[in-house]
Amino acid sequence: FKQSAPNLPFTFHRGFDHVTDSKKALEQLIELGYSNMLTSGCKTAAINGIEHLIQLSEWSANRIEFVVGGGIRSTNIEELKQNLQPSYFHSACITDTNEKINPNELQKILSIIRAQ
User: How far is residue 91's CA from residue 77's CA, in Å, rounded to a whole number?
Assistant: First the structure.
């Protein structure tokens, strides 16, 4: 697939979170040429997958970037940021049951990400 757009980065979506052998799947994605992988650390929410995300980062040895996603909210992004230091986060910025982006939540998340 990489041959069709060699200068563009490719991101593998959260299908990774359903594999049975994370280390093998990670190696396969790297070999296929993916530059990014959206994952919650194989849990429903990334905050619950921190330990696995740390392990994945060690296994990857900087050969792929992680996009940490799954339940990313202003209430947990600081912990994720401190423990993982990912290049990217993915959040729907939803805070209630109406499933619409909450602009205040987005601003809180951006403020936390941008803080040193």
Answer: 10
Tell me how far apart the alpha carbons of residues 82 and 79 are, in angstroms, rounded to a whole number. Answer: 5
* Residues composing the chain: 116
Structure confidence by residue, pLDDT tens digits, 19-36: 999 999 999 999 999 999
Q: Specify whether the CB–CB gap between 9 and 35 falls below 8 A.
A: yes
CA–CA separation, 68 and 80 (whole Å)? 8
Q: What is the pTM of this model?
A: 0.88
**Burial group, residue 52, by CB count within 10 angstroms (0-12, 13-18, 19+):** middle
Three-state DSSP class for residue 38:
strand
State the greatest distance between any 2 C-alpha atoms of the chain, in Å, as a whole number: 42
State which H helix or E strand residue 54 sits in.
helix 50-60
Look at phi and psi of residue 97 and say left if phi exceeds 0, alpha if psi is from -120 to 50, else beta: alpha
Distance from C-alpha of 78 to C-alpha of 81, rounded to nearest angstrom: 5
